[in-house]
Amino acid sequence: MTQPRTPHPYVSARFAHQLEMVHPQRHRADVPALPAGYTLRSFRDGDEPAYEELFRLGWPDVGTLPHTRAHALAGGVLVVEHDATAQLVASCVAFGPESPRHPGDGSLGWLVVDPAQGRRRLGTVVAATVTNRLVDEGYALPWLGTEDDRLVAVGIYLALGWQPHLYVEGMDARWQDIFARLGRKFSPSDCVSL
């Protein structure tokens, strides 16, 4: 019997508008090599219970998988499987266009890594692979939504070339705070305003 997995601490959204990032560079991201003992693959039938267990390590939401599968690009629900245990330990999704604010552009969503698998760059592997899928699809401005307290994820996105999207007033102050918490220097030139 496997031990229960400890979820990431979940902090409810403190702001009316979710943070957004965009990937305007149209260049492919470097995908790090997976450590030995892990396999990157697309979600397949039968993964539902394992995916739901992994998903709940990042979010309290339930019942999102049908929507995710319906709106993801073909083969766009990516997972990392730990070979020895057959547990899903990381995931990220490449979505097709579905946002009225981003018509015609796909998005990256639902990046989650089992906290017990940290420091293996599994989040970077799946997020970079999804980023490349969105670039390869030819979307003009792929986007993602995130929260102020998802610092590890934001650090991954920044490293992959994603930029803060200042789409409502006050976003720059939130991003300044996030950059400071990440130990990075903030500049308005790091952001995209549309």
Secondary structural class: alpha+beta
Major pleated sheet: 7 strands, mixed
Mean pLDDT: 93
> What is the CA-atom radius of gyration, in angstroms?
16 Å
Q: Topology as H/E string?
A: EEHHEEEHEHEH
Q: So, the CATH homologous superfamily?
A: Gcn5-related N-acetyltransferase (GNAT)
> Number of domains in the coordinates?
1
Explain this structure:
With 194 residues, the protein is α+β, with helices and mostly antiparallel strands. The chain has one domain: Aminopeptidase. 26% of the residues lie in helices and 22% in strands. It has a seven-stranded mixed beta sheet, with helices on both faces. Strand 5 (107-113), helix 3 and strand 6 form a beta-alpha-beta unit. It starts with 18 loop residues before the first strand and ends in a 13-residue tail after the last helix. The model has no long low-confidence stretch (mean pLDDT 93).
Q: Short description, anyone?
A:
The chain has 194 residues and is an alpha+beta fold. The chain is built from five helices and seven strands, in the order ββααβββαβαβα. Strand 3 (72-82) and strand 4 form a beta hairpin.
Keywords:
alpha+beta; Aminopeptidase; seven-stranded mixed sheet; 5 helices; 26% helix
Topology:
Blueprint: E1 19-22, E2 38-42, H1 48-55, H2 65-71, E3 72-82, E4 87-95, E5 107-113, H3 122-136, E6 143-146, H4 151-159, E7 163-165, H5 171-181
Parallel strand pairs: 5-6
Antiparallel strand pairs: 1-6, 1-7, 2-3, 3-4, 4-5
